[in-house]
Amino acid sequence: MIKDFAVVGSGIGGSSIAALLSSKGFDVILFEKEPYLGGCSSSFSRAGYNYNTGATTLAGYEDGHVVREIFDAIGVVPNLLESDPSIVIIHNENVTPRYRDFEKFFEILQLNYPHKKNRVFWELIYDINREFYRFSGHYYANSNIFSKVESLFSFLPIFLRFKKYLVANAHSFIKNFFADADDEYIAFLESQIFIVAQAPLREINFFTAALSLAYTFNKNYYVLGGFSTLFDDITQNVKELHRKSEIISISRHKNHFELYTKNGRYKAKKVILNSTVYDSGKLFNDIEIKNYYKRYKKLDNYQSSFMFYMTIKSEKNFHHHYQIIQEDTLPYTLSKALFVSFSDKNDTLIAPKGHYSITASIHTDSRLWENKSFYKARKKELEDILREIILKKLDIKEDEIVQSFGATSKTFYRYIRRSQLGGNAMTFKNFLPFLPGNDTSIKNLYNVGDTVFPAQGWPGVMLGVKNLKRLLDA
Predict the structure, then answer these.
(1) Is the pTM of this model over 0.85?
(2) Mean of the per-residue pLDDT values for the chain?
(3) What would the pLDDT profile of 268-297 be if each residue is shown by its tens digit?
(4) Tell me, what's the pLDDT at 12?
(5) Which residue, 459, 413, 464, is CA-closest to 436?
(6) Which residue, among 278, 276, 288, 218, has the nearest Cα to 68 in the 3D structure?
(7) Distance (Å, rounded) from C-alpha 425 to C-alpha 361?
(8) What domains can you pick out in the chain, each with its CATH number?
(9) Beta strands 265-273 and 445-447: pairing type?
(10) Is the model's pLDDT at 474 over the cut of 70?
(11) Helix %, strand %, coil % for the chain, to 5?
(12) Burial of 413 (0-12, 13-18, 19+ CB in 10 A)
């Protein structure tokens, strides 16, 4: 029997488009290599304790935002707690909660980083974010030059409104705006931008930087029970879901595709890949398809994450998320900033009563972990450094640790077949019209996820899901 759609990979994009198409009555089959759904955004168990794999916060689930729109279309109501502050930033002696309420946040900001132009700057950030989410109707097509040009015209209202910020380099804009700002304040801004935009200031425009700084003015949520429970809810109406089923190869035929696993062969009229766009070609022997994906190999920036997981037993109260900014870039990483997430104190689905599950991450280059001679020593050294920072900055005692361990880009490749993490940022080199699309020049072959339109994170990937749905309806 030939399926309408085969979706390969159960990350944010794969699970969501599979559920959305299923809700429209299509016959969909979803494949996932691991027992847990979600890819980089899944959760897992180790030695009896649970952890979120990578993503630890859900943004965009509010009226007028795309995550809410897609969830409503699927018919799922997630089990969430609002996080406010969305994140607490610890930088030297300064502790800055990023409250959703502008004035509440600004009062603390001005105490920690006083500057006469702060209000003008942060009101600009707030207004850009608020106005951007009022735009709708824009979409991106990439199957041929004519559809691409036509789709680019849909962005004209956004371009006209934000042109000044779209063409301005973020680093130059901020340095010129805060002409006398010290390095500490710039580090405070850049660390927040990097964790959202997944790129340094010099590589992005100010519009992207503004949206990155403003995400805490939107509602952000903690997912009860860990992210795998959310993906179980999203995909509950997908009739055929194959866990622990890795797609080994895909062949193209006249009117369908055939997908091969170790246990069988499946047919589908259309295929949607939730895999990194520059690695997708390895699934095919078809030269035309391999060459299509080969053109995007240059997008692989080797940026990844080093993860550090802990379970602690503590009676203290912690916020859901912290960003700890250090003076210097940490060894074997690309960043000065460590992102640390705690399970909710009352969430006994992910951690036993009186315990916290902790997921910490920092940017790294996957090539730093390829040499077997240095791998174990580097991993141990960075684990020790991150543990020490977390214990010191968050006042945790060594004897409160129940379990701790790290994961590198090699770990992620072993489990989810990708070592590049965080998606592809919208940089000056990777911006419309150069961004890979959800559609391809190959008939009935599509992509979704954080390496194609429009970007990374829940809102970015869900915009891609919405865009793909539009293309499939066209």
Answers:
(1) yes
(2) 95
(3) 999 999 999 999 999 999 999 999 999 999
(4) 96
(5) 464
(6) 218
(7) 18
(8) 2-37+235-299+422-473 (3.50.50.60), 101-217 (no CATH)
(9) parallel
(10) no
(11) 40, 20, 40
(12) middle
